[in-house]
Amino acid sequence: MSDKLKWLTDSLNMNRRSFLKTTAVGAATTGLVTAKKDAEAFAYEPYPRDDELETVVTSCAHNCGSRHALIAHKKGDVIVRLSTDDGRFQKDGHYGKDTEEEPQLRGCLRGRSYRSRIYSQERLLYPMIRVGERGEGKFKRASWDEALDLVAGKMLDIKMKYGPTAILDQSYAGASWGVFHKSDQIAGLLGRFLGLFGCRTNSWSVPSYQGTVFSSTQTFGSIEDGNEDDAYSYSKLIIMWGWNPAYTFHGGNTFYYMRLAKQRGCKFVLIDPQYTDSASAYDAWWIPIRPNTDAAMMAGMAHHIFANNWQDQLFINKFVQGMDQGTMPEWGKGGESFKDYIMGFSDGIAKTPEWAAEICGVSAEDIRKLAKMYALTKPAALKASWAPGRNAYGEQYNRMAAALQSMTGNIGKLGGCAEGIGKGWHAEGSALPEDPYSNIYAQAIKSDRWAHCVLNFPNLKREEIGLWPRQDPTDGMPPLIKGIFWQGSNWFNQLTNINKEIKAIQNMELVVCSDSTITPSGLYADVLLPVATHFERHDVALPWYKGHYYIHRPKVIEPMGESKTDWQIYTELAYRLGFGPVYNPRASRDYFHHNDDTDESYLRYWWESKVMAHQHVEMSWDEFKHLGIYKFKLDKPHVGFEEEIKNGKPFKTPSGKIEILSTPLATTPDFAKTQFGYYIPPIPKWIEPWEWLGHQKAVKFPFHMITPHPRWRTHSIFNNIPWLREMYEQEITINASDAKKMGIKTGDTIEAWNDRGKIVLPAYVTERCMPGVVVVHEGVWLDLDENGVDRSGNPDFLTDDNPSPAGAFAYNTILVDFKKSDLEHRPGWDKLATSRSHVFRRDSGM
Length: 846
Hints:
Blueprint: H1 3-13, H2 16-29, E1 54-59, E2 69-75, E3 78-83, H3 109-112, H4 114-118, E4 128-130, E5 139-141, H5 144-162, E6 167-169, H6 189-197, E7 201-204, H7 210-220, E8 237-241, H8 254-263, E9 267-271, H9 277-281, E10 285-287, H10 294-307, H11 313-319, E11 320-321, H12 338-343, H13 353-360, H14 364-376, E12 380-384, H15 394-407, E13 443-446, H16 450-456, E14 483-487, H17 491-494, H18 498-505, E15 510-515, H19 520-523, E16 527-530, E17 539-541, E18 549-553, H20 566-577, H21 580-583, H22 596-614, H23 621-627, E19 629-631, H24 642-647, E20 658-659, H25 663-666, E21 703-706, H26 722-727, E22 732-735, H27 736-742, E23 749-754, E24 757-766, E25 773-776, E26 814-820, H28 829-832
Helix pairs in contact: 5-20, 6-20, 7-15, 10-13, 10-14, 10-15, 13-14, 16-18
């Protein structure tokens, strides 16, 4: 080997520190450095290197539409940094493994920032009891005995004085979610606890997609109407209707498969009032549309398809009820079919593209062009996202989308799409005890109507609050609510019409908030109970509505402060109230202090009795724990309703077909006795919302506000993360032409208002939003001034809690006005972000 080659080889193999020494000496010989000094890559010591850290596989835990892998790198009992899936942590895995069959489960910006959430200044570490006025944020630290004695005593008092409906369960799947630590309304820990206590009013309905639940159930008989995302890669056309997958996932690897579709020649279309990052990424044809008019545009597309005879009539005749007179059931012959409505045979108004254009603001030419593309491109996926369903009469948008999916024959076919809800592959989702105690409640009301119920009791009708009809002594009687439990939810900040909630909360005698962070909901509570994060308890992560994998979620670090798991808290309360052994049958009374072995036994039993038994998984529980990730290898892409279309399996509807004419709706004699209480037409129709740009209210409030999900939060989770807030501001997006007329430029302070409230936030002026529409992302933490004006820019001070007939939440049905303002805007972490790159604890070993 030559001297030169030997020198080069030695140089390439030298370690980092010797390289830095060499370069420092070299610099000194040129006169740039006056004294010999070792260079360091970091500004200060100590900083642990990778070979000094322990690596632990875990996952995200929030509801962004997915739950991806996080790899915790820790020193002692401190997480130093987080990375994500790199292919190694699965059977037959290796560094860099990333295939179409088993793609990596990579965390996004939110998941990768989770360390800042664990060690946040807002972290709730000790039980707290309110000492100031509600909402004032004044609390004193309490012992667990003091806090739990107070809660148990108040619960007994409320139950005795007001009966079995007096405590409202407002749990939800926020950050307390896994197969074991669950916080939902159906199979959650709080619901089980309050049900066994015998005093529970349930909060039914899902804010994200309740109208879609109704639509999919009526049309298909199931909410399991989705493909796995790998099926997208076979589409020739993807219509992203109100869908921005760059911000909100609907599956584990959406980007991966849509990129494959793009590479294979798929065309993309976006229907949305704003030009999104997804439209940019996929070079989509952007069709801006007036908010809340989606059903009208779809009706115009249906008319053009029928007029040109482009519908898949063979598919319709075989699989669809009520599309036309030829598919009407015997009991409905001569009644109104979907085609009768669209062509104007039944009401004299043909739903032509020109008719639709007057309503939705999309040109008739573009409506015809899109209708032709969708009808003649095979296979094509109309992805009807949830956002346009979060409107007044949002269920009609989803039902109209299902009609288009059906008439073009794109259901049950690879590359097509039936999605409303979009639930795909089935995960074994619960390690909780299986018994009749899981979901007991005396009454159930629509979750965002609790304030209306409290403020108007007893002078209100059942349908005003979505009170479920029940055959018991309380049927039709609104609950007298005097207590609220929030678990895994920040619903006080997230439900519609916050000002109404602020009034109603003053009537409560007990408000309990269980959380790992002090949120706005916590500020209005009487008792704060500190909950261990998912890094501080044992569980298994599920994919969300899509994704075919499980991720082991061990206890990475010990719980900080005096925080406990939800299971520990409610088990101890159950013992104090007399039903501990029934609530947590595998635990002893000592569970509050020592829970690890019990949690392990629940999880092992779940894996062996459900996952291994039902899903043909041969990997043992111990091997799964060791590897961290189990990825299912599907024989073929999972396609919603493939069995029904290919093999003739009946749909789970009364007719066994896709019901564009809904049998239950068409045969309901009295809607006042239904869950919803309001008339809903048996076929999809355009129904004018109570607020939109074509309404007379637009004279007073001439702009329509939409409230999409941000990229930098999951609802309100991560609102206080400095890294994310340094990159993204809470702002109001305004079209450039509207801004020019009003003399507004980017950065100006704006106040936006309607009859329900007022918010203050900075302007962002752009061409990426259509005229007449403004955009304010949901989820920012409320911050009120002395006059009740929200200085943070939370749009839910402007939303209406008026119920849509099928339960849809009208988050995007908002008319407002706005102007430049001298009112104070409180950006908080937007401008005042600080680095928390090192958090040390005495027992960390550092």
